[in-house]
Specification:
Number of strands: 25
Mean pLDDT: 95
CATH class of one domain: Alpha Beta
Largest sheet: 5 strands, parallel
CATH topology of one domain: Rossmann fold
Structural class: alpha+beta
Number of helices: 12
Bound molecules: adenosine monophosphate, glycine
Length: 419
């Protein structure tokens, strides 16, 4: 089978590797990929959606896998264009990807289908937002559009709310758009992934993401500084409740709203004292959760995605390991405010303890790996219990060095020893 993966980050490196390792002789291509992904998947000579679709049509691609969300909502949408060209695509069409691209759209969907979520008011301007907050702090402010993970602020007081509102409505930091004022929920977060094929679904291994840059969950939000995944991350009872109250009604809601869906859907959840509630949908796998989950997936992921893209949910093709997986991110100096490139990386090779996925690396002039962006590497190790996986992942991360490296040493420890 000829498979093309769209994206360039650590998530796509993990997806490409899982597809390459699927049984059967698959030829994997990528767009745009990265130097590390190009070691496993051939880069495609395209410079946008038009040339990508033309190349896939001309080269007999059997399956397009959408890794990154941006392509799903760019132009007419990657999946829509694939459909037009008769190429099976694992990833939803643009109209359904609004669940991620517009927080107002997602909130209206959740409310319409009675799916538990925080109460929210959509606002078009600064004064309207201040009225909606009505002096209730903490409050959560969410820019309506895609904002590369920077569009949400949890504001403890009026000063921080005014600062964020100023960025959104005065400076237009994220461009034009509305804003949601949302009730602040409390509780542990969990990322749940479902593979959805029309009216059917399969829930993958859940994960927990560590969003803040600093140990003890301090400092600014990032794309994710680490993740833990396991079937045993949440109790069977909670998982059953998430499936019944959240996943199943979401799939039914997509059907009744006439929103086609074949691909991964990510449910960002908070386990509140009143039960699990949705804080966001993403129309793709999580990053870095994907890097933690993929090593736990057994069987034929390539065949599963192809069957799914063609409308068949083949649960029999994959299975999930019962163990634990821990992913430690190594980020560059200055992240998340800025990112430094060009620092030489040592210790990646022969790291037998773990899988090392590349998120932001390139090959330097001397032929060795160097940093190229914010999050640089994801170091992932597993074990039959959490402690084994934590020890292995951190020991493997200890072997890797580059100047200015930022890493959290409490990944897999915080939220597991305190709760
Ligand atoms: P999002 O981009 O929607 O995932 O939001 C980023 C982060 O903001 C989440 O991972 C949560 O930690 C936090 N957050 C979002 N919505 C809420 C909420 N309603 N209450 C409390 N925290 C939230
Ligand atoms: N780890 C959070 C995300 O992928 O959005």
């Amino acid at each position: 089978m000829k498979i093309l993966v769209v994206g360039k980050g650590g998530r796509e490196h993990a997806l490409v590797r899982a597809l390459v390792e699927s049984p059967g002789a698959h030829e994997v291509f990528c767009f745009p990929g990265s130097a590390a992904i190009h070691e496993l998947a051939k880069p495609v000579p395209a410079d946008g959606l038009d040339s990508l679709i033309a190349w896939m049509s001309g080269n007999g691609i059997d399956l397009c896998v959408a890794g990154e969300e941006s392509y799903l909502v760019t132009g007419e949408g990657l999946a829509n264009r694939c459909a037009g060209a008769g190429i099976p695509c694992w990833g939803p069409p643009k109209e359904s990807a609004q669940l991620e691209a517009s927080k107002e759209f997602a909130k209206a969907f959740l409310v319409r289908h009675g799916i538990p979520t925080a109460k929210a008011t959509a606002c078009g301007g600064y004064a309207e937002a201040i009225d909606a907050i009505a002096g209730c702090y903490p409050t959560v402010l969410k820019f309506d559009g895609l904002a590369a993970g920077k569009g949400v602020a949890v504001c403890p007081d009026e000063a921080s709310a005014r600062e964020f509102l100023d960025e959104v409505f005065t400076q237009r930091r994220f461009g034009d758009g509305r804003l949601l004022v949302e009730d602040c929920l409390t509780g542990p977060e969990v990322s749940v992934f479902a593979a959805i094929v029309d009216d059917r679904y399969l829930v993958f291994t859940p994960a927990r993401d560590y969003k803040r840059i600093g140990e003890g969950d301090t400092g600014p939000n990032t794309g994710g500084m680490g993740a833990v995944a396991s079937r045993n991350l949440v109790s069977r009872e909670t998982m059953d409740r998430i499936t019944a109250d959240i996943v199943a009604p979401t799939v039914a809601g997509l059907r009744s709203d006439g929103l086609p869906y074949r691909g991964f859907l990510y449910f960002g959840l908070m386990l509140t004292p009143d039960g699990p509630k949705v804080i966001e949908y993403n129309c793709r796998f999580g990053d870095p959760e994907c890097q933690a989950v993929m090593p736990l997936v057994r069987g034929d992921l390539a065949g599963f995605c192809l069957a799914g893209a063609n409308g068949e949910l083949r649960e029999d093709l994959i299975d999930f390991d019962n163990g634990w997986s821990v992913c430690v991110i190594l980020a560059s100096a200055g992240y998340p405010e800025s990112s430094r490139s060009g620092d030489r990386i040592s210790g990646i090779e022969n790291n037998a303890l773990a899988r090392v996925y590349h998120a932001g690396t390139r090959i330097g002039a001397d032929g060795s790996w160097e940093t190229h962006g914010g999050r640089v590497l994801a170091v992932v190790a597993g074990g039959s219990d959490l402690a084994t996986a934590v020890t292995a992942a951190h020991a493997a991360a200890d072997r890797i060095h580059f100047d200015g490296m930022q890493r959290r040493r409490d990944i897999g420890i915080l939220h597991f020893t305190n709760s």
